[in-house]
Amino acid sequence: METKVNLREEIRNAYNKLEGAFTKGNVTGVDSIYVENAELLAPGHDVAKGKSAILKYWQGIVDMGIRKVELNTDKVEDHNDLAVETGTYRMYAQANQQIDQGKYIVLWKHTDGKMLVERGIWNSSNPESLQFLTSRIPQHR
């Protein structure tokens, strides 16, 4: 299916919020890009269910020293009330030291006039990074 230009813009605007939270070192307000019952399927962790658990997960990432995240959309498929996005990511610690990189899939849902994240999953392309990240972020159930 052909992607609407404004859909890519909506996704980019949502990611600007998430990326900005890492730069600031505070994820407050990031939950606005998620539906109420969203799920985050992070590698090496149980599913984070709901906005509160997702915020705790992202704050754990910030607390361990991640200060920059780059999310790059490769493809978006528009299915009316849902959209499927695939892309790549990179995570950096202070001093722009790259900690991780990988790929992701996000399911977006049209809710209250905007696209919000319903589910997100990603996988590291670097096994050493995965071990580093999963050993430092507490499980959120």
Automatic annotation (TrEMBL):
The lineage of its organism: Bacteria, Pseudomonadati, Bacteroidota, Cytophagia, Cytophagales. InterPro entries: DUF4440, NTF2-like_dom_sf. It holds the Pfam family DUF4440. This is DUF4440 domain-containing protein. It comes from the Bacteria. Transmembrane segments: none annotated. Residues 11-114 form the DUF4440 domain.
